[in-house]
Amino acid sequence: MNRILVQPQRRKRVRGPLALALSALLITAGLGGATASAAEDYSQSAASVNATQAQISFTPATPARYVDIHYTGVPGVGQQNVRMTDNGGTWRHIVGSLSAGTVLDYWFTYEKNGPQYDTPHFGYTHGGSGTTVAAPTFDPPGGSYPSARTVTLSTATAGATIRYTVDGSTPTASSTVYSGPITVSASSTVSAIALKSGSANSPVSSASYNIGSTQATCPVQSEVPDFGPNVRIFDPGMSAQSIQTRLDADFNAQKDTLTAQFTERRYAHLFKPGVYSGIHDDVGYYTSVAGLGQNPGDVVINGDVTVDAFNESDKGVALQNFWRSAENLAVVPSSGATRWAVAQAAPFRRMDIRGGLNLFPASYGFASGGYTADTKVSGKTASISQQQWYTRDSSYGSWEGGVWNMVFSGTNGAPANTFPNPPETTLGTTPVSRDVPYLYLDGSGKYRVFLPSLRTNASGPSWANGGTPGSSLPMSRFYVVKAGDTASSINNALSQGCNLFFTPGVYHLNQTLNVSKAGTVVLGIGYPTLVPDNGVEAMRVADVDGVRLKGLLFDAGTTNSQSLLTVGPAGSTANHSADPTTLQDVFFRIGGQIAGKATNSLIVNSRDTIIDHIWAWRADHGNAGTYGWRVNTGDTGLVVNGDNVLATGLFVEHYQKYQVIWNGQNGRTVFFQNEIPYDVPDQAGWKSPNGLNGYAAYKVGDNVTTHEAWGLGSYCFFNDNPSVNLYHAFEVPNRSGVRFHNMVTVSLNYKGTITHVINDAGAVTPPGTTPSNLVGYP
């Protein structure tokens, strides 16, 4: 084993004033699985007492054993987490040290008949306009329905009045007053706003309903669509020089880590079937490279598809080589091996490498990847200085390297299971998998999207025996989303039964995208980015069979969203094991580009969902003013409430509370990579509900009886306050059915410590960026 260990240089950070600590009281039972939203469950208010004090009150409809308030905004004071005082069924707390204009952000945790619940966040301006009314919600959510629906509107703010429209127009204070359930008998968009005297109006919420057919039929779209100006389509009849000129121009625009990492430019390079010689595609930020054949060998590049530490500012490391991809190509490397030295959100899928593959920079500096699936490498795959890597359903000629956490499932030619020395975790098969949907050209020159079949206990590439099993859909059943599309036009396409094909771009959404039809495909190329505005949720998926989401980047807006993506409503129980929803190469970002805010990035309520390669990232660096403890706020990256959910390739970093909360039964994770937030300001404000230091990276709910995970790494780098400590990286119930295999914790550059690996087991992280390993628990 040739292991090269170099001192890691962490990602670029710029320190700003950090005045607040992280909230200490999330949910002790349920852990994020129950979020109160109905006004009938409680009422709350905030009112001025005098020039320096405000009283916050909370009255639950059902008597509570306790109510805790969490609030930020008091000048010079970190986040406070306080048990309120009960006064005849109304719980109260006085907040002091206020002045005119002080803005408080506050929310509650309360007990109700045993379980514990979190409320949404509320706002209060001292001496100002008071709280902001919570946005209205719709039950049932927008979608396609065979007959008229009775729609109920509600808001979490007691005493608020809801006004609404049914023609898609923006509601105002003079719109129709909501007084009871609305009957929606024809296709329409319902929009609503909530108002209350003394409070700021809520954001506008909207839901689109398509009424009148059991199965909506997508109006016929073009089978040879216009994919817009950011999709480059190459033909083998083009000269190599003309192709290279286009590739180089895109690369030069997307290359620089300092200037292109948070640009809004996005590109896709698509190669029609055939052979291309002398081509070298250096892949920069927000660039997807893909072949348009039905199988990888239909497009052959005699040359290279490369990612390296390209820039002088990178100083030889590839720790920020995010957001780029390669897919569905055969590559004959020009010098024996091609290089894919990437960090997170850079999948390498359906690739046929006829030679070697180097996953490390040419400089041998550290990289922080990575993910490979459904790929064959005839020669040696060398990770060398890669910190961690996950490979699924692939084939390697051989493997070399390993720093902390290298994981393989269903991979022929993978190394033996030798964790921790060397740190390789190998599963012979992948329990359940389904390769990504992908665009291809058929024999008549028309575009189609191929839908690979579900595999169980898979090993090796799906195309190893001549072709990937599955079916396909014509592009005539896809609405192509391009610049100029709005949430309304996209929802209209969904309500008509269309699948979605997102082209490269940034799409602002003023209403939630509702995916309600079973079997809907939402496919993106070139990192299309969905930004929710005004605190809406970017996308909701109904509790139906076979939805496939692939190739999307959810970027939180500047007004807090409760979630960026939710799969299935709370309490979903339908069995989807025969045709699960799959989330693949779906990425989440809070901050970095803009000062985004989202309480949760991804909530999965539907059973049997497959989470196959996600990166949920609360930014530790980015454009000025877009990151910081009080700036890009986010509690949790992933909340799983559904049973039988499988995660293969789970990357979650820097959230302010639990990074992952898993409440569903029979959950499984193969490979987990995590960094705890860098910017925790102080220990006193960063304690979990059980009173221990910090929030575990991966929390299995107290009521879970069966859960299993393999190959997990969690790293701390408390750069803003190295005295901060995390008690344990993994927190699980002590039950025989909850089993964890091959775990590692590391203190990067010895900035802070992690006392235990899991619960009370495992040693404290030692100095020297040295791992603390634990082979199994219990």
Mind telling me the CATH superfamily name of the domain at 231-434?
Single-stranded right-handed beta-helix, Pectin lyase-like
Distance between the termini: 30 Å
Please, how many helices? 2
Radius of gyration: 25 Å
β-strand number: 59
Please mark out the parts with pLDDT under 50 across 5 or more consecutive residues, or reply none.
1-39
* CATH topology grouping of the domain at 231-434: Pectate Lyase C-like
Describe the 3D structure.
Mean pLDDT is 90; it is low at 1-39. The protein starts with 41 loop residues before the first strand and ends with a strand. Among the domains are: 42-126, Immunoglobulins (Immunoglobulin-like, Sandwich), CATH 2.60.40.10; 137-211, Immunoglobulin-like; 231-434, 3 Solenoid (Pectate Lyase C-like). The chain is mainly beta. A hairpin with a 2-residue loop joins strand 1 and strand 2. It has two helices and 59 strands. The strands form nine sheets. The protein has a 15-stranded parallel β-sheet that branches. Strands 38, 39, 40, 42, 43, 45, 47, 49, 51, 53, 55, 57 and 59 form a 13-stranded mixed β-sheet that branches. A nine-stranded parallel β-sheet has the order 41-44-46-48-50-52-54-56-58. The longest helix is centred in the N-terminal third of the chain and has 15 residues, at 240-254. The chain is 3% helix and 43% strand.
